[in-house]
Each structure stands twice: as structure tokens, then as C-alpha cells.
Write a structure and sequence with these properties.
two-stranded parallel sheet; 12 helices; seven-stranded parallel β-sheet; binds uridine-5'-diphosphate; Rossmann fold; single chain; alpha/beta
Length: 361
């Protein structure tokens, strides 16, 4: 009302890739907060999000609007399109950018390294240029524990070296972007950059109305299991049963996407803290690792369905195990993951069984 009466723009948060999996859950988490005082502006090229024919917005955003009763500003723009991005910044009073937009399929990145450089590095640099042109210096970056490469010790904390032994072009794009952000912060103290290093995001919003909707056959464990459970895929291949882990299968730190989304909302508050500037990497994980067999068993319980699986050779580039030291997030953001593996599986099952074809009818 104030903004309308005085004909000024409402402060906005610009979310690139806001129609995707983690992006849409973060938009939801922000809008679910009753005291949230920003307009949400989503920029997405729809490369991995579905918009129904004749609609202006992707289904995920329409469902969030329906659930929250709030409006999302949506622009179909590719982050490599400098003019397109600049137009969006010109229309809104952007205070902060949360940058999710990226290609993220590890295997595909080996086949198409240039496409990954283009989307993830060129796109990110273009976004930074536009931010600088519009004097926007607050950024939350969607990073990954893959920047740590082969772990030298577990759990992984933020002081663990990055960039060594990263096994995919995708992982390297995340690492290179972090290095670019460090250089940016060194060049100008106005930059405030929080790089959130995600462990393995899984789960879905408890409403069952938004969730992960991968293109084609899923590469990741949880969506693959979910599609086996719902009958879209016949069986799961367990990649590697001879790792030096509790039962021989790979161990990962799975984190509920709603916890992850809350981490972004908490991170927004860091920009207001006195003296905060520069590049700040923060792990978002639970601190606990689960094996593939433990995940299968938790999913069978949650869905009450058997998950047929076949032990198979290791997948190239896979680590035996990794999990986070989440203490920095707890100290800096007052954030801890609270949702259990059982909740992760239960929420995935609600989403997958209610939307067997994802967002497509
Ligand atoms: N995994 C598996 N079968 C699959 C997909 C994944 O056994 O079809 C295993 C994989 O080897 C790893 C774990 O599940 O140990 C998590 O894999 P995901 O691709 O989800 O995450 P990332 O390997 O990138 O951490």
C-alpha cells in the first residue's frame, strides 16, 4: 500500500532459476513467512521447468501463488541475455540476488563441457556485470559440496581445500564461480557474497504440490528411487557395493529441500549484520551420512512399497562417502537442519505419488 501511494518500488529479491527444484522451494519458504517484506522476482529460462500451454508462469510458481495467496513476478529470461536481465533490474528495486540458475547434471557435463561453462560461468559473470551496473552487491550463490573434490578428511568443513580432484566439469564450474566471486570481493568491498555449499538436497514441500521434476531419467538417487516406487522405472542400480562404508554402498549427507530453503531465508539476514562483507562460504548439510541401502530401506518404509534393486559396478567419478560439518551455518545463520531421512522420503513419496508425471498433467 505504502509503495503504491508514494509511487515507489517495493524492495525486491531477484531469484535466478526460481522455477527449478531448490529455487522454487526457496521462493515458497520466503513467501510462507508472514513478515516477509520483499517482492519476489523470478528469472528463469525454463530449461528445466515446465510451463503449461497458454500460461504465463511455470506450474511450480502458479502452485506457490495458489498456496500462499501472494504474487510472484516472473520473467522468462536467460542469464546470458545481458539486456534482458538489465531490463528486469530496471523494473524492480533489487536488493539482493539469489542465484540458482545453472545446469546441474554431472554426467551430461562430461559430454557437454562448453555448454556447462556457458550456462554456469558465462551466465554467472553476465549476472554479476548487470548487478554491478545496477549497484546491487548482495548475492547468495547456489554452490555445492562438490567444490571440495575428494575429501581429505570427514566431516567436510569450510576450511577444507577446494578445487582439488573435482571429478566433473559441472563441479569445476561451481569451483570456478567461487574463485571469481572471491576475486570480485577482493576488488570491491561493496560485494557481500554468501556461497551456500549444498550437500545432497532431496525431499519436497510437505503439501506435495511442489517437488523435484527432473528432465528424462533421473541421475540422482532419490528421484530415481521415487520413480521406481511409482512404477515409472523397473529397478534401481546400486552403483558400487564395495566401498569402505558401513554396508559397502556410497554414503551421502542428504538434506531436506525445505531445510535447505530455510537456510537461504536465514542467509538473507546476514546482509544486515554490521561489518559483514566479502566472500563467505557456508555448508548446508545435516552432518549425518546415510548409505544407499539405508535410503532404499527408509523409502520402502515411507512408501510401503518394495524398491527392486540390483548391485552394480561403481559409477565413474563417485566418492565413497561425504558429509558436512554444519557448525558454521549454525553459528552464522542460526540455522540447523531439522528434518529426518524418514521425513525426506515421506515428502518425496507424497509428491511423486500425487504427481507421477511431475508438473505435467
Ligand atoms: N546412486 C545409485 N544409483 C543411482 C543413483 C545414485 O546407487 O541410480 C548412488 C551414488 O553412487 C551415490 C548416491 O547414490 O553413492 C548418491 O548419488 P547422487 O547422484 O544422488 O548424488 P551425488 O553422487 O552427486 O552425491
Amino acid at each position: 500500500m505504502f509503495y503504491v501511494l508514494f509511487n515507489c518500488k517495493m524492495p525486491a529479491i531477484l531469484v535466478t532459476g526460481g522455477a527449478g527444484y531448490v529455487g522454487s522451494h526457496t521462493v515458497m519458504a520466503m513467501l510462507e513467512k508472514s513478515d516477509f517484506e520483499y517482492e519476489i522476482v523470478v528469472v528463469d529460462n525454463l530449461s528445466n521447468a515446465y510451463r503449461a500451454k497458454g500460461e504465463k508462469k511455470p506450474v511450480a510458481l502458479l502452485r506457490i501463488e495458489e498456496m500462499t495467496g501472494k504474487t510472484i513476478q516472473f520473467y522468462e529470461v536467460d542469464i546470458r541475455d545481458k539486456q534482458g536481465l538489465s531490463n528486469v533490474f530496471g523494473k524492480h528495486d533489487v536488493q539482493c540476488v539469489i542465484h540458482f540458475a545453472a545446469l546441474k547434471a554431472v554426467g551430461e557435463s562430461v559430454e557437454k563441457p562448453l555448454e556447462y561453462c556457458q550456462a554456469n560461468i558465462t551466465g554467472t559473470c553476465t549476472l554479476f556485470e548487470v548487478m554491478r551496473d545496477h549497484s546491487v552487491y548482495n548475492l547468495i550463490y547456489s554452490s555445492s559440496c562438490t567444490v571440495y573434490g575428494e575429501p581429505e578428511k570427514l566431516p567436510l568443513d569450510e576450511n577444507h581445500p577446494t578445487g582439488r580432484g573435482i571429478s566433473s566439469p559441472y563441479g569445476r564450474t561451481k569451483y570456478f564461480c567461487e574463485e571469481i566471486m572471491k576475486d570480485l570481493c577482493a576488488s570491491d568491498p561493496k560485494w557481500k557474497i554468501i556461497s551456500l555449499r549444498y550437500f545432497n538436497p532431496v525431499g519436497a514441500h510437505p503439501s506435495g504440490r511442489i517437488g523435484e521434476d527432473p528432465n528424462g531419467i533421473p541421475n540422482n538417487l532419490m528421484p530415481f528411487i521415487a520413480q521406481v516406487a511409482v512404477g515409472r522405472l523397473p529397478e534401481l542400480k546400486v552403483f558400487g557395493t564395495d566401498y569402505p562404508t558401513i554396508d559397502g554402498t556410497g554414503v551421502r549427507d542428504y538434506i531436506h529441500v525445505v531445510d535447505l530453503a530455510d537456510g537461504h531465508v536465514k542467509a538473507l539476514q546476514l546482509f544486515h549484520r554490521n561489518g559483514f562483507s566479502g566472500f563467505c562460504p557456508i555448508n548446508l548439510g545435516t552432518g549425518t551420512g546415510y548409505s544407499v541401502y539405508q535410503v532404499i530401506s527408509a523409502f520402502e518404509k515411507a512408501s510401503n512399497r518394495p524398491i527392486p534393486f540390483v548391485p552394480s559396478p561403481r559409477r565413474a567419478g563417485d566418492l565413497a562417502a561425504n558429509w558436512a560439518e554444519p557448525a558454521a551455518a549454525s553459528q552464522l545463520l542460526a540455522w540447523n537442519a531439522t528434518r529426518s531421512l524418514a521425513q525426506m522420503c515421506g515428502d518425496v513419496w507424497r509428491w511423486q505419488s500425487g504427481n507421477p508425471n511431475g508438473y505435467r498433467e
